[in-house]
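Exam revision sheet. Question 4 asks you to relate a sequence to its structure. Input first:
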Amino acid sequence: MASLRLRLSTATAGALAICTVAAFHPTPANAVPSVVPTGVTRYAPEKAYNSFILFSGSDNHTHLIDMNGHEVRQWAQSGFPARYVDPALVQGQKGVIGLQLSEIRGDGTHKIPGATAGFRNRTFGYVDWSDKTLWEWGLQSPEGNARQHHDWARLPDGGTLLLANQNRSVPGGAKPVLDDVIYDIGPTGKIRWTWKAGDHLQEFGFTDSQLQLVLHAENPDYLHINNMQLVGDNHWYRAGDKRFDPDNIMIDSREANFIAILDRHTGKVVWRLGPNLPQRRRTEPAVPFAVDQFVGQHDAHLIPQGLPGAGNLIVFDNQGEAGYPARPLQVTSGSRILEINPVTAQVVWQYTGENSGGPPWSFYSSFISSADRLPNGNTLIDEGMNGRFFQVTPKGEIVWEYVSPYSGETPGTSPDRPTRSNWVYRIQPVPYDWTPSGVPHTETAVAPAFAQKK
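Answer key, structure tokens:
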């Protein structure tokens, strides 16, 4: 807490100096406070699940921090996302992570006219704790650049699944689009399987009128698939439901408001939730309840075996601006974390700002963000738009909170008016024993500055 007070004191002194200068040199009004706390703002070690946290900051570096916000390791590259690799998938080696290793220079093949997202990844790869590159891929791709975005997965056989972009025309489309593709890449770099979203538009649950809107979308990044993970071991499959084959792939589309599972062999959609669900209720009902419309969601995945809620779907429901037709941003609503039984489509647990004693908009990120179930039953949340990470108990008590101090240029803004923010796309809890031996960490309680409703 002393370090937080020091930051606030220093920042306050700076702010007073700025205010003094501003009296003589007026500046435009700013709706965002100029002094905000960063680092750990509250922490109850006895109630939290204690681990390292891995994330790529807005400074384009990747950071590994402990629960008190101390950086224990930094990598010069960023990831989209940065993720650690389970040692069991790399012959027991600890400290291996996946990152975007190089960028496309200039206005090259990552661009398509009118696209708002210009993902610039040239090569993706794995590096070890000492920064040695273990594997790199991208120049071998059909376009000479990986163009990986939003997600990737290490496979048990040493291969890699990459979610990437291609500029292409889709069947029935009005113009070329920024299509989402998945590559299954063998250990030697050879592509073994390719899936292209634009070839499966009839399987995503669109009505005829919606499909026409999709095919004539103004934004070339028309589906914006932001998640791609193996389904993984689960009790649904072991009970005989083949849709949940552990080797199948779960995706979600931010722009089209659906989550789907792809058959790994046929590429067909075998399970889907959305895009046409009942409108979200004005008053949140008690669980369980039939899932209602999520909007612009992120990080949909089945909770892994061994964790509380295993087999259920957990997703960060942004409630942003998305859909065909697009649902506009709401005035007073907030984001939600939904835990959903994927067979019955019932919400069995949810988190909103109200669960922590605040208004709905006290928890809100209209884009990016993530959520992970933890071994003790808590949930780790990245409120990505605000660079705020926090951990909540099943009842909604916040037992750890951190605000990223790493800022950088905000993507998607006008080059004539550059802006800075501390947004963070996704975070990941990292077990202490993943790192090589001797990496220190602390678990010192931090009292919140303001009382929280229990």
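Marking note for examiners. DSSP finds three helices and 28 strands in the chain.
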